[in-house]
Structures are given as structure tokens and as C-alpha cells.
Specification:
186 residues, mainly alpha, Chromosomal Replication Initiator Protein Dnaa, Chain: A, flat
């Protein structure tokens, strides 16, 4: 295929790219710092008097305060299905226990958006991420999946509401210049 070039500059640029592809990039030219002209000296500005200003500390809302944690999912599963935490993570393979464990993984995958499959597996007793992936697919078919998913959604909304009240209280405290350290995160 013959390329058509409209100007000599286009042809020279094409030759340069072909040469660079065949022979590598040309060596970089390194300029010694002594060869550069000296930089002009800038006089420092005299320091100005700065009056101290009270700036209230910013309110930092951590993301883990308003998200659903894996422990929230485990606590909900244990309270709803009547397990203790150690029973849920035991190495037993009873059909009902496995199905309930898969429900836990499905809920964790849906509501713990900050966790990957390997993290969910490690948090649930060192399981492999492929086990969690398979269990997530089966856990969606559990009869209590929708009910518990709605419960976790409500918990998430409660955390958001509590966080919103925290922000409102902090904003009011800032306006009154009151200390903010006595507020609690629910």
C-alpha cells in the first residue's frame, strides 16, 4: 500500500516514525546544568502580620459509618435464622447450614459494596472467592432473601438518617461556636 502525503513535512514525519519503530527512539539530549543560564534571584516578600482566626475543625464523616458492614449482615442472619456466629462459620456442611451461609454471601455481595468476593470469603472463615461466587448465585434463591435484603436496606437508611442528624447538629454547633466533640455517631 502506497501512502499519499500532501506535503514534504508529512513524508518526513512518516519516515521519522518508521525509523523510530525500526531502530528505536533517538538518544535523548542531556543538557548539563552548568550550561543553562542562571535563574534570576527573587527577593522574598516581608512577612505580614496574620491575625489568629478561629476555624472550627471540619466534620469528617467516615464512609464506614454509613455503610452496611459484613458484621451487620452476619448479625442479621444469626438473629433471623437462630444461629450463633461460630455455628455459621463452622466447617459443617449440613444442607440447611450451607444454604443459609449462601444467603449470607448473597446479602453481603449485594449490600457490602466496599467488599470484594475474596474479602467476603476471608471474612467468612477463609473461604475461597469462587465458593462465595457460587454461594451468592444460590443464596439469591433462598426464601428469606428478599425479606432480609429489605431489612438491610432499612438499616442503611437509618444509618443515613442518623448521619444526617449528626451533620445537622454539627452545623448548628459550628454556627454557635460550640465544641463538637460530644456528638455521637449511631
Amino acid at each position: 500500500m502506497i501512502a499519499k502525503f500532501s506535503t514534504a513535512e508529512d513524508l518526513m514525519a512518516h519516515y521519522a516514525t518508521v525509523r523510530a519503530r525500526l531502530h528505536g527512539a533517538p538518544p535523548k539530549v542531556i543538557i548539563h546544568p552548568a550550561a543553562l543560564p542562571p535563574l534570576p534571584e527573587v527577593e522574598p516578600e516581608p512577612p505580614q502580620a496574620i491575625a489568629p482566626v478561629f476555624v472550627p475543625p471540619p466534620i469528617v464523616v467516615q464512609p464506614h459509618e454509613i455503610r452496611i458492614n459484613f458484621e451487620d449482615v452476619v448479625a442479621l442472619i444469626c438473629s433471623h435464622l437462630g444461629y450463633q456466629r461460630r455455628e455459621l462459620f463452622a466447617n459443617r456442611r449440613f444442607h440447611k447450614l450451607c444454604f443459609d451461609r449462601q444467603l449470607m454471601w448473597a446479602l453481603a455481595h449485594r449490600h457490602c459494596l466496599h467488599m470484594s468476593l475474596p474479602q467476603i470469603g476471608r471474612a467468612s472463615g477463609g473461604k475461597d472467592h469462587t465458593t462465595v461466587l457460587h454461594g451468592r448465585k444460590r443464596g439469591v434463591k433462598h426464601p428469606d432473601y428478599e425479606l432480609l435484603s429489605r431489612a438491610l436496606t432499612n438499616l442503611f437508611e437509618e444509618k443515613h438518617r442518623a448521619n444526617g442528624t449528626l451533620i445537622e447538629q454539627a452545623a448548628q454547633a459550628e454556627m454557635c461556636h460550640e465544641p463538637v466533640h460530644d456528638l455521637e455517631i449511631v
